[in-house]
Design a protein that fits this description.
255 residues, 76% helix, mainly alpha, 2 domains, transmembrane, membrane, elongated, single chain
Length: 255
């Protein structure tokens, strides 16, 4: 066998090994990409399902329930080629039936009174999660730009509802416990929060109610003539933390 033939065989062998290594690399990358996509879709599907099931009944509407069902259906359908199990197909069929109901979709979420700072933070975390899902879906074209903007506005409204309920409940609890100073602080924070809203007229009735409660608490403080700075300090810190800038709610779809 001539040296030329031997050289060609060696070169051919090396090229074959390189080709095999490249193909194996591509196959592994494809597997990793599919695994990553599957994990991401499962995570987003779970997040939307959790929001749909656990959102407080006083905040969720048929329209929001329908939106979350639509998003779940989108992610479940994209999962089918990656997970062809019977459970996946059943889930898609069930979600299609829910979405087909339109705004007649049933909402069975029970109300969850917001009576503590911990509960208020928990609900705010849910709204942050919803905000993130809507923003990402709008950027990816799953939702139209108009839909995205509409729902970001609705999420801001739900956040305002959360604050209204929390401040009102906190103030009423303080009055029942004979702490008019704490009640005044809670109602005052609620009034300030609503006055800072971009569209305060939307909350005119709630603002009038909180102002009425604030006047009552003020009168009680004057009657008792008790110093309120010490009893209010801990509450002040909690309310300020809840009322932090909420940068997430100001984030636009096209940052």
């Amino acid at each position: 066998m001539s040296p030329l033939v031997i050289t060609l065989l060696i070169v051919g062998g090396i090229m074959a090994l390189v080709a095999i290594a490249y193909v194996n690399h591509m196959v592994e990358n494809n597997k990793l990409e599919k695994a990553r996509l599957k994990a991401d879709l499962n995570d987003r599907l779970k997040r939307c399902a959790d929001l749909s099931e656990s959102m407080p009944g006083q905040l969720i509407t048929p329209q929001l329930k329908l939106l979350l069902s639509r998003l779940q259906l989108h992610f479940a359908e994209r999962l089918l080629p990656l997970d062809k199990s019977a459970a996946g197909k059943t889930r898609v069929d069930e979600l299609r039936q829910l979405v087909a109901q339109g705004e007649s979709i049933a909402v069975r979420n029970p109300p969850q009174p917001v009576l503590t700072e911990a509960k208020a933070k928990d609900v705010r975390f849910q709204l942050e999660n919803l905000h993130g899902q809507v923003t990402r879906c709008a950027k990816e074209g799953i939702l139209t730009a108009n839909e995205g903007k509409h729902w970001l506005g609705e999420i801001r409204h739900m956040l305002a509802q959360l604050h209204i309920e929390f401040f009102n409940n906190l103030g009423q609890q303080a009055l029942q416990q004979a702490h008019p100073g704490q009640a005044r602080l809670a109602f005052e924070r609620g009034v300030q929060y609503l006055r800072k809203q971009p569209d305060p007229s939307r909350y005119k009735t709630q603002l009038q109610q909180l102002e009425k409660h604030l006047a009552r608490a003020n009168a009680m403080v004057l009657q008792t003539s008790q110093p309120v700075s010490e009893e209010s300090s801990e509450l002040t810190e909690g309310l300020k933390e809840l009322e932090s800038d909420d940068d997430w709610k100001k984030k636009q779809i096209y940052d």
